[in-house]
From TrEMBL, chain B:
Family that this chain belongs to: Belongs to the sigma-70 factor family. ECF subfamily.
Pfam family, one: Sigma70_r4_2
Protein name (Swiss-Prot/TrEMBL): RNA polymerase sigma factor
Top-level taxon of origin: Bacteria
Signal peptide: none
Ranges of residues in domain RNA polymerase sigma factor 70 region 4 type: 107-155
Species the sequence originates in: Chelativorans intermedius
Domain RNA polymerase sigma-70 region: 15-77
Keywords on record: DNA-binding, Sigma factor, Transcription, Transcription regulation
């Protein structure tokens, strides 16, 4: 994979494999197959309950701490790398 | 370029679904939020390794999952049964308490082994393909498929749901109608 950058701690192991363009066709096809016999589809009670469970979690109000955290990270980055930022401009 | 507003926005937009995944893994709302926080910090520091145009959500899920398992390993070393077993139920948010049906489902989900629970959540709830779920978990697609299938069978068993004829003509017809 040309242009792939150093990946650090290995969190990405196997990740790119599934996300390449090559695989998107295969993904689409597998999606089609799932529509035919999807054991977790809308027709399955477990599938419905799973989505109900997850939707309830997702609709939960998000605390401010995450937005604040990202603002701090952004601020810190600007303070720590002023030269780099100048170069990039 | 680092720290673009787009990357930050992407992270923020992913928070609700990251929290839902984290709760499903950690079974505890506070711990889940700590996991999400750690995930955001890691993602920020590793943003150069993210390839724009690829699936940011899947990338974040991968980081969160790795963080969860590395914390678990650390905990197991530290605690070594001193505290006894952890509470065996997924925490139920106040908004969910009204539905006992949902509470039953949470309990059933909590009884699944971790590998099966994460697989069925990724594929059945978070909307990832089997291939994406396999990439997130760092295993083969076939492994994910078998975990999902075992998880589903176990949930049906616990909840007393009769085996559903997902291969029957009626179900295919119903799904075709739903899709159309």
């Amino acid at each position: 994979m040309a242009g792939r950058k150093r990946t650090g701690t290995g969190c990405e192991t196997g990740f790119e494999k599934g996300m390449t363009k090559q695989n998107s066709d295969r993904r689409r096809n597998s999606h089609k197959r799932r529509l035919v016999s999807d054991p977790l589809g809308p027709n399955s009670e477990i599938g419905r309950k799973l989505k109900q469970y997850y939707d309830a979690l997702i609709s939960d109000e998000v605390p401010d701490r995450f937005s604040q955290l990202l603002s701090e990270l952004e601020k810190k980055e600007k303070l720590n790398t002023p030269r780099q930022a100048a170069k990039e401009d | 370029m680092t720290g673009t507003p787009t990357f930050r926005d992407g992270l923020l937009a992913a928070v609700p679904t990251l929290r839902a995944f984290a709760i499903s893994l950690a079974k505890d709302a506070d711990r889940a939020d700590d996991l999400v926080q750690e995930t955001l910090v890691k993602a920020w520091s590793k943003q150069d390794s993210f390839q724009p145009g690829t699936n940011l959500r899947a990338w974040l899920f991968t980081i969160l999952r790795n963080e969860f398992y590395s914390q678990m390993r650390k905990r197991r070393r530290e605690v070594e049964d001193a505290e006894g077993t952890m509470t065996e139920s997924l925490s139920v948010r106040p908004s969910q308490e009204s539905s006992s049906d949902l509470a039953d489902f949470c309990k059933a989900l909590a009884l699944l082994p971790e590998d099966q629970r994460e697989a069925i959540i990724l594929v059945g709830a978070s909307g990832f393909s089997y291939e994406e779920a396999a990439a997130i978990c760092g295993c083969a697609v076939g492994t994910i498929k078998s975990r999902v299938s075992r998880a589903r069978a176990r949930l049906q068993d616990i909840l007393g749901i009769e085996g559903e004829g997902e291969f029957g003509p009626d179900s295919i017809a119903a799904q075709a109608t739903n899709v159309a």
